[in-house]
# Entry
Amino acid sequence: MAKNLIVILGPTASGKTRLAARLACDLNGEVISADSRQVYQRMNIGTGKDLSEFEMNGRKIPYHMIDVAEPEHEFNLFEFQKRFYSIFRALRVKNTLPILVGGTGLYLESVLCNYDLPAAPIDEEQRETLRGKTKDELQTLLWKMKPQMHNRTDLDDVERLIRAIEIELARKNAGTVQQKKPDIDTVVFGIKWERSVLRERITRRLEERLEQGMIEEVSCLHETGLCWAKLDSFGLEYRFISRYLQNQMTFQEMKGKLNTAIHQFAKRQETWFRRMEKKGVAINWIPGDDYSLLKESVMKSLQ
# Structure
């Protein structure tokens, strides 16, 4: 049976978004982003949100799940899945091919592994109680509720810990209504480069982003109301540049540590993808510079 969703995943700097946009252009498709930071407005350079990638052959490729929330808003997995299902249904009604692309493993997995996610509205009274606990106490509580948890990023930030606990409490509520899910038949392609090539791409891209004004972007976000702690919670570029702007490190220290952190992040993404394969997600790996092979493989899956 022909597939009705194409997924293109890969580590940071692998060029997956450009390939997805090119594919959408050739196959009359639309791109749905699975990037946990590109959902935020005004966070452009640091998230790699190059919207020019969606302009090809004189036409604009429609895209979704980019610039859909203010940075102050706490976008979460439930909201991503809910929005994705809505977009997917709308595209299928008009007979348009959805192409899901990104590197946020948890977002991708929520679709590929058919996660049951409860609606977990924010409970301010409960939050006040949780905020009275230490980070270690919150971590212990979450581990007890979810001992098989893989998304360890939830353990690094107090607000994420509290949100993760809220979701688990909602999940345990027998009366919680799950989202209705469309029928999805997916084929997954992974973009892969040799490790040395990917490292070079990451370092070169960091240089380009710094030249494009990434430091000024972070400074502007702070000046317009985002506190340092919130910027730090976005990780990577926003974390290290925020520390540089607070004179906690020199420019060269910031640049070196950020470069190392991005390389480590790419490795964690690759580890996540391997774990997805162990869970039964079949990923067809494509060399990053072979668009013809990608297109040919996608065409076969649609027949």
